[in-house]
Amino acid sequence: MQIILCLFIPVMLLFSGCMVGGCQNDQLKGLVSVEGTVRYHETPLEGAIVSFTPVSGTGMAASCYTDAQGCFKLTTRHSGDGIFPGDYLVSIDKITVLFMPTEEEAEKYLEETGKELLPKTRVDVPEKYRSTETSGLKFTVPEAGIKNLVIDLVD
After folding, report:
1. Strand partners of residue 71
2. Integer Cα distance of 4 and 63 in angstroms
3. How many CA within 13 A on the CB side of residue 130?
4. What percent of the chain has pLDDT over 70?
5. Would you state the pLDDT for residue 81?
6. CB-count exposure of residue 62 (10 Å: 0-12, 13-18, 19+)
7. Domains of the chain: which residue ranges?
8. What is the pLDDT, as a whole number, of residue 31?
9. Which residues of 126-136 are buried (b: 16+ CB within 10 A; e: fewer)?
10. pLDDT for 56-94, tens place per residue?
11. What is the mean pLDDT of the chain?
């Protein structure tokens, strides 16, 4: 269930603007680029979800995945389109699926044990970074955007 939520939340963040405010291009005027790198143990963190949530509770969130070099470019609605200037709380999450049962395996296990066979996962970042409330990461995005933001995660 945890892996499903972790995959579902970023998708919802990416599309929440369309559901709430419609998909008119005029609502995207004013987006600025935010690009950077996420590192953990001084190594680029590939496949992490970077999420920026407005401090004010209003506005639009942005998120994206890091590439093989740990680089990211925030997305509000369309890949790499940016984010609105303002103050943001940030979370970084990465979960690796180690084992995903097939439907047949899950059904057989349930029949044999009476228990659900869940995916096996590994969390690849310190727990505190997985939530904006505990990450300690807060950034102000200026009207000029941010070109080389480096986010170093520490234990």
Report:
1. 37
2. 17
3. 14
4. 83
5. 95
6. buried
7. 2-20+32-144
8. 95
9. eebbbebeebe
10. 877 899 999 999 999 999 999 999 999 999 999 999 999
11. 87
Joined together, the tokens standing for residue 125 give 């970042």
What the block records as the tokens of 13 is 């963040």
For residue 18, is pLDDT > 60?
A: no
Instruction: Tell me the two tokens of residue 55.
Output: 């401090």
Q: 117 φ, ψ to 5°?
A: -90, 110
- The b-or-e profile of 10-49 (16+ CB within 10 A means b, else e) is beebbeebeeeeeeeeebbeebbebbbbbbbeeeebeebb
Whether 78 and 30 have beta carbons less than 8 Å apart is answered as no
For residue 4, the model assigns a pLDDT of 45
End-to-end alpha carbon distance in the chain:
25
Contact 74, 83 (CB under 8 A): yes
The predicted-structure confidence for 112-121, as pLDDT tens digits, reads as follows 999 999 999 9
